[in-house]
């Protein structure tokens, strides 16, 4: 019985943490297809305004920062960026609206082009609590298929979590 529990735990871990970053082997670049330029600092342009009164301590931590303070409590909702890796117009904005309605802060949404396998929440491993927040986002929105560490190209978005939507995303 103990062996069965161990095997089940390993299977769950393997399914939740695949050893892939979502790009094809040998591919190191993708293109941002937008009329806006990506800057090192997150912007609110193109995002819906939010008036949520979340009392989360993480709302005062700038996206992409790795503070020396203790890890945020489990369930802390960190800011995120939403990218549309499909040809469906308005998909990122619609998802951003949905995440915002669910209590998340979306700092930017845009179009994106790369070979991404499935809809995923990419977390910045250098940000305390980012993986736990991405896991919480996936639990709240199961259409996010994977939670994986960010690959280098996503650093330009300067966000603890970058959600990339693919054809499998269902609003």
- Give the overall pLDDT as a whole number: 71
CATH class (first level) name of the domain at 79-171: Alpha Beta
Distance between the termini: 39 Å
What string, H for helix and E for strand, traces the elements in order? HEHEEHEE
Describe the biggest sheet? 5 strands, mixed
> Which fold name is given in CATH as the topology of the domain at 79-171?
Alpha-Beta Plaits
User: What would CATH call the architecture of the domain at 79-171?
Assistant: 2-Layer Sandwich
Total number of beta strands: 5
The number of helical segments is: 3
Shape: globular
Low-confidence stretches: 6-74
Percentage of residues assigned to helices: 10-25%
Overview of this protein structure:
The chain is 22% helix and 14% strand. It has a domain of 93 residues: Alpha-Beta Plaits. Strand 3, helix 3 and strand 4 form a beta-alpha-beta unit. It has three helices and five strands. The protein has a five-stranded mixed β-sheet with strand order 2-1-5-3-4, covered by helices on one side. The chain is of the alpha/beta class.
List keywords for this structure.
five-stranded mixed β-sheet, alpha/beta, 22% helix, 171 residues
Give the structure's gist in a few sentences:
The protein is built from three helices and five strands. The protein is of the alpha/beta class. It has a domain of 93 residues: 2-Layer Sandwich (Alpha-Beta Plaits).
Blueprint (SSEs and pairs):
Blueprint: H1 2-16, E1 80-84, H2 91-101, E2 106-111, E3 120-123, H3 130-140, E4 146-149, E5 161-165
Parallel strand pairs: 1-2, 1-5, 3-4
Antiparallel strand pairs: 3-5
């Amino acid at each position: 019985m103990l062996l069965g529990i161990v095997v089940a735990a390993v299977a769950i871990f393997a399914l939740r943490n695949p050893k892939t970053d979502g790009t094809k082997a040998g591919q190191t670049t993708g293109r941002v297809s937008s009329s806006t330029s990506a800057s090192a600092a997150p912007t609110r342009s193109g995002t819906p305004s939010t008036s949520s009164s979340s009392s989360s301590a993480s709302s005062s931590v700038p996206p992409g920062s790795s503070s020396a303070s203790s890890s945020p409590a489990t369930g802390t909702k960190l800011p995120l960026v939403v990218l549309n890796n499909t040809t469906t117009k308005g998909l990122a904005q619609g998802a951003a609206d949905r995440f915002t309605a669910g209590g998340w802060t979306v700092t930017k949404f845009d179009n994106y082009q790369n070979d991404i396998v499935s809809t995923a929440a990419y977390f910045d491993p250098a940000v305390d609590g980012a993986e736990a927040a991405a896991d919480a986002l996936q639990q709240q929105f199961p259409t996010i298929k994977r939670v994986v560490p960010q690959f280098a190209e996503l650093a330009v978005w300067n966000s603890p979590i970058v959600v990339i939507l693919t054809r499998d995303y269902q609003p």
